Amino acid sequence: MRKRGRPIEYDAQTALAAARDVFWATGFSASSLDALSEATGMNRPSLAGAFGDKEALYIATLEQYRDQGAAAMKETLSGARPLARELALLYASAIDLYLASKDAARGCLMIGTASVEAVSRPAVRNVLSQGLAEFNAIIEERLRKAVRDGEIGKDTDPAALAQIASAVLHSLAVRARAGDPRKSLERLARTAVGLICP
Amino acid sequence: MRKRGRPIEYDAQTALAAARDVFWATGFSASSLDALSEATGMNRPSLAGAFGDKEALYIATLEQYRDQGAAAMKETLSGARPLARELALLYASAIDLYLASKDAARGCLMIGTASVEAVSRPAVRNVLSQGLAEFNAIIEERLRKAVRDGEIGKDTDPAALAQIASAVLHSLAVRARAGDPRKSLERLARTAVGLICP
DNA sequence: AAATATATATGCGAAGCAGTACAAAATCAA
DNA sequence: TTGATTTTGTACTGCTTCGCATATATATTT
């Protein structure tokens, strides 16, 4: 039995992805509801009805991004391949994502745009914090397995090393948005893999 | 002989520092000229006359921040002390700076606020890019000296290792703004020093 | 078919914003 | 003292923004 009333014409996930692209390019504050409305194909009242105000919409895009990113990361770091290979794949796909735009490189949505708002908007800070923590935890879990399996030294501290691996990810995001060329990012990734998997 | 006309009542460097604090807390787009005017004690026409439009003012604050940061960094990495000690000092002062605010931690001005604007504002992207490159170059120079002096292995690549050391700095900036506690940042710094100076 | 429920479309109004024109004030030169 | 020069203060204009109020469209329920 369908819901009463006029059926919705938009798909929430699709609209969220379109809004995400706007935020990704111009950040939260510089993204107007008009621009978001045009990108999603939803007019402003529909946007408000579906997601609430601009901050709520932004947070929804961040959560979608975080969840998709975490899922992709778990797949890459599944443990099916050697650690060094999986880490290299992780960084390679991050670089691809960060440089994907046809215009200027957009880096990471969370690091590139949520960081600014995090200071004055606690809700954004929470999503950012949880996002970073989640990504870090996935890496740490993989490193823990690597220690168990003897891929890296038994005396290494997975939590500490995960912080380093995450730091490289953060740096890739920042550098990409600053306009660093792909070669430079790839070099950092290569060095990092070598350092983490000696 | 003094300049003709009514004397200036503001000090450009002081005003720039005040404007910087506003941008640091709320970012470029969310900082209104009214807020900047109030913080600097200069009214809007004076601001415009002294620095140009909002973007020009923002870039001036970024450049001031970058120059002061580079100077402090060169002093810390002077080479007067062992590499491990100087690196630890570098990270410690970065953490202090990133957590200095009484309100929510502000991280690094460039990474935290210029990253967002970098995509749509080439002038900002240039300052950010040059800033990151300059900080990286100072670290690289110190590592080069460390190789010469035998502080680290003769076979290490200073440029590659500098990218890693910079990445830790970037990560500290991001994590600080995301609300990471000091302990967590200090742990990352400790691990990084241990990894870079084995 | 009528009533009801939900979604979409248009448009209005209050507020905020950036940049600037113009007048007032303060100093120097003659 | 008078005029020139530069900074400061006020106020204005044109624009954007957000949120909401109202009207319209499309479905289900009775």
What does the model show?
2 copies of one chain form a homodimer. Chain A has about 200 residues and is mainly alpha-helical. Chain A has a domain at about 65-195: Tetracycline Repressor, domain 2 (Orthogonal Bundle). Chain A has helices spanning about 10-25, 35-40, 45-50, 55-75, 85-100, 110-120, 120-150, 160-180, 180-195. In chain A, helix 8 runs antiparallel to helix 9 (about 180-195). The longest helix of chain A has 27 residues, at about 120-150. The relative contact order of chain A is 0.12. The model of chain A has no long low-confidence stretch (mean pLDDT about 95). At the A-B interface, helix 6, helix 7, helix 8 and helix 9 of A face helix 6, helix 7, helix 8 and helix 9 of B.
Short description:
The structure is a homodimer of 198-residue chains. By secondary structure, chain A is mainly alpha-helical. Chain A has a domain at 63-196: Orthogonal Bundle (Tetracycline Repressor, domain 2).
CATH superfamily of the domain at 63-196 in chain A: Tetracycline Repressor, domain 2
Principal-axis shape of chain A: elongated
Total beta strand runs of chain A: 0
Q: Tell me which oligomeric state these chains represent.
A: homodimer
Structural class of chain A: mainly alpha
Q: Class of the domain at 63-196 in chain A in CATH? A: Mainly Alpha
Strand content of chain A: under 5%
Which protein chains make the most extensive interface, counting residues with beta carbons within 8 Å of the other chain's beta carbons?
A-B, 47 and 48 residues
Biggest sheet layout of chain A = none
CATH hierarchy: architecture of the domain at 63-196 in chain A: Orthogonal Bundle
**How would you spell out the order of helices and strands of chain A?**
HHHHHHHHH
What is the CATH fold-level name of the domain at 63-196 in chain A? Tetracycline Repressor, domain 2
Q: Ranges of chain A with pLDDT <50 over ≥5 residues?
A: none
> What is the residue-mean pLDDT of chain A, rounded to a whole number?
95
- Termini gap of chain A: 60 Å
- Computed over alpha carbons, the radius of gyration of chain A is 19 Å
Number of helices of chain A: 9
